[in-house]
Design a protein that fits this description.
With about 750 residues, the chain is α+β, with helices and mostly antiparallel strands. Helix content is about 35%, strand content about 20%. The chain has 20 helices and 27 strands. A seven-stranded mixed β-sheet has the order 23-22-21-24-25-27-26, sandwiched between helices. The N and C termini lie far apart (about 65 Å).
């Protein structure tokens, strides 16, 4: 059913004759149905299709789909917990991982495949070939080089091909040209593509699918639709509005020049940013419309992080045995034994353990630092497996294949310190509740609770224990706010035991506590690592397709500037020379280089700790060769670039005014350029401040000997609120010499 308004026609037919119902039911029997309707679908149900007297094939199909959904979701969740889904990549893309983890906590939905959006080049073989597909002549896998004259075929019998480039982020013209240089010389066409976000979700019922599709369409994914098959109800969330394809190479010869490649890259990167914005909007709508009562995922997991087993009830929300505070706390206190294996073996190994009744259901699967998956087992099972694999005992209950893999070193049994306590989907316990539960049990075990019962202990922990409700999360670290757990409640507990309990209850390996941030020029961070003793503070953050790494004990990271960092990657600065007067760890330096494609950038930074992180981030994002770091006071170092740059970023708060003169001096005298000026400004003062900014920049240009200039604010970005009615703003100022 594809035509707009066709549902209304169906209703008219239905009221006229029961024969129409029978014909329509037969249509459902023969094949799957794809529904892409307007809002009329909101009140549509498969039960309408059923024969009024008999219940109908379609209604039976819906009931059967609901009955099978729980089993299929459990299986798919186990696959996801082992780091895989059905997309070609085989796992979640980082930009949409949080959204999919959250959606999968809902009892009526499970994602089956997805792509956050990508910029890619696909080479398709057009050579004449009469062969049939075999594994030996299969299409080339992504990243695999094809030999010249390659004519391998795909499974459907078509000629093969290969991905020359596939990036879930911005690309450069150099990336594209390098990829095209690797194309086979045999007959074939290479197509440059931007493919937007796409998601496939299996739904428990048609009603659930309808609600999800309505949210998707409201989020701008207008081509979203529902597919009703014999065994499932699926929603495809998609849009073609941001799609782009252009052939760029044929039979080994470029069809376009380098300038056109640059145009394609710019357009694709702009579409990628819009795609990210639309995806973020979708997640916001999902949280309001479908996930309002579903707690956020327990952390921000890496690809392959687990989602617990669930049970769906008739209202679509998670149910089953509730996890109590004591349950979580017991899990923390348990002996954390696990079978460790690679991602590709996880599903098979877990299945063996389930059949052998060796799985420890108090814990979830967890991804380890070396990339292996830790599957929890009981301490008794661990002992049996270890003994049987070495031949000490003959354990008939242990799977032979698993024991063989252990003897060969493919699978190991180890104690894992950061196992996460299991919980039901839908989240009966928030991270805060898990933390409180673990701390209550800790007091009980060490006798620090005196004669108080569990209820009173919990009250004491929550009201006297200085337990924080919020904290910052990184891959394997949480940073608690200043003053966290500083209370007499913990005087009888060893600090090592206390912080280890915090780490285990929240599923991390490192715990830190914030101190005050210096208000001086270097914005020095004061964070203390509490667990484990001697651990370093280096963490990694991925934003907008870029990677930032820094030491939380020495420098700060402002998550609130994420949209401004994204915007800096979209400014039209290709081929320019730029200056970042306050580079920090590369907040704006990296997107200007990696995404806006400036030709060269000078980065000034006073703080030596930030300089170290900046150099690491330049290397990590592949732009080190196009940036010169100028450590030290920019009042001195920026003199090196006087009159050399087209664009200056002044990202210092609460005011960057001390750098205005340096910025005007750095602009090219003959052509001028752009300034991005950051400032904290009261709402009532903003018009006057912008006027003063323009006048002051013109005065500074003349003072520098540049003569008369025009300095006009062309755009003002309101990044975030700094205080009530005080905004962190960025003024984009175009500065040009006035020519006679």
């Amino acid at each position: 059913i594809n035509a707009a308004g066709s549902l209304g026609n169906l209703r008219a037919i239905a009221t006229a004759t029961t024969q129409a119902w029978a014909l329509l039911a037969l249509a459902f029997v023969g094949s799957a149905v794809c529904i892409q309707p307007p809002s009329a679908l909101r009140s549509f149900s498969l039960k309408m299709v059923a024969d009024p007297g008999e219940g109908g094939v379609a209604a039976e199909r819906e009931e059967g789909a609901i009955a099978r959904f729980e089993t299929r979701k459990t299986q798919k969740m186990e696959a996801i917990s082992c780091g895989s889904d059905k997309s070609k990549k085989g796992s979640f893309d980082a930009p949409i991982e949080d959204m999919l983890d959250h959606l999968n906590l809902h009892g009526e939905y499970v994602s089956t495949s997805s792509c956050s959006g990508r910029v890619a080049i696909f080479w398709e073989n057009t050579a004449t070939d009469t062969g049939v597909w075999t594994p030996a002549n299969a299409a080339v896998a992504p990243g695999e080089a094809a030999p010249e004259g390659d004519t391998r075929r795909n499974k459907k019998g078509g000629l093969g091909g290969q991905w020359l480039l596939c990036r879930h982020g911005a690309v450069t013209a150099e990336d594209v040209l390098d990829a095209l240089a690797r194309a086979p010389k045999s007959p074939g066409i290479a197509t440059f593509k931007h493919e937007p976000f796409i998601l496939h979700v299996e739904c428990r019922s048609l009603d659930a699918a309808t609600r999800l599709m309505e949210v998707a369409r409201n989020g701008g994914f207008r081509e979203s639709g529902i597919s009703i098959g014999k065994k499932h109800v699926m929603v495809g969330v998609r849009t073609s509005a941001l799609k782009m394809e252009a052939p760029v190479l044929e039979d080994g010869q470029l069809l376009v020049d380098a300038d056109y490649i640059k145009v394609l890259v710019r357009l694709a990167n702009e579409k990628f940013v819009k795609n990210q914005e639309r995806t973020d909007k979708l997640y916001a709508l999902l949280r309001r419309a479908l996930l309002a009562n579903i707690p956020l995922p327990l952390d921000a997991p890496e690809n392959g992080a687990p989602v617990p087993h669930f049970s769906a009830t008739s209202n679509g929300h998670a149910s089953g045995m509730e996890q109590t505070d004591a349950t979580a706390a017991r899990a923390v206190d348990a002996e954390n034994m696990a079978v460790l294996c690679c991602t590709s073996e996880c599903e098979q190994v877990r299945s063996m353990l389930v059949k052998a009744d060796m799985l420890n259901k108090n814990f979830r699967n967890s991804k380890q630092a070396d990339g292996r998956i830790a599957i929890p087992v009981t301490s008794q099972a661990a002992s049996v497996l270890k003994a049987a694999s070495t031949g000490i005992v003959d354990a008939t209950s242990a799977p032979d294949e698993l024991l063989d893999n252990m003897r060969r070193g493919i699978v190991t049994v180890e104690k894992v310190e950061n196992m996460q306590a299991a919980g039901k989907v839908g989240g009966k316990m928030s991270p805060y509740q898990r933390l409180v539960g673990a701390l209550v049990l800790l007091l009980e075990n060490v006798g620090g609770g005196g004669t108080r019962d569990a209820h009173n202990l919990k009250h004491a922990v929550e009201n006297e224990g200085a337990v924080p409700h919020k904290w910052e999360e990184y891959t394997d670290m949480i940073v608690l706010p200043e003053g966290a757990l500083r209370s007499q409640t913990w005087d009888t507990i060893s600090r090592d035991k206390l912080w280890m309990t915090v780490a285990q209850s929240l599923g991390v390996t490192r715990v830190a506590v914030k101190g005050e941030i210096d208000t001086g020029r270097m914005r020095q961070s004061h964070v203390e690592i509490m667990h484990p003793s001697g651990a370093d503070g280096w963490v990694k953050v991925a934003q907008n397709g870029l990677t930032y790494t820094f030491d939380v004990t020495k420098v700060m990271f402002s998550r609130g500037n994420v949209n401004e960092r994204r915007r800096m990657g979209t400014v039209k600065a290709q081929g320019e020379t730029a200056l970042d007067l306050y580079a920090g760890i590369g907040y704006f330096t990296i997107p200007l280089l990696a995404q806006a494609d400036v030709a060269f950038l000078y980065a000034c930074e006073l703080n030596p700790d930030s300089v170290e992180a900046l150099r690491r981030n330049l290397r990590a994002n592949g732009v080190e060769s196009r940036c010169e770091v100028l450590p030290g006071d920019n009042a001195v170092t920026a003199l090196k670039v006087k009159g050399l740059v087209d664009r200056v970023n002044l990202g210092l708060l609460p005011s960057s005014e001390l750098g205005w003169g340096l910025a005007m001096a750095a602009l090219k005298s003959d052509s001028g350029g752009w300034l991005h000026v950051h400032e904290n400004v009261a709402e009532a003062d903003e018009p006057a401040w912008l006027e003063r900014l323009q006048d002051e920049l013109c005065r500074l240009a003349k003072e520098d000997g540049k003569g008369d200039w025009s300095c006009k604010v062309s755009n003002v970005e309101h990044v975030k609120t700094f205080a009530p009615r005080v905004w962190h703003i960025v003024a984009d100022v175009e500065c040009r010499p006035l020519k006679s």
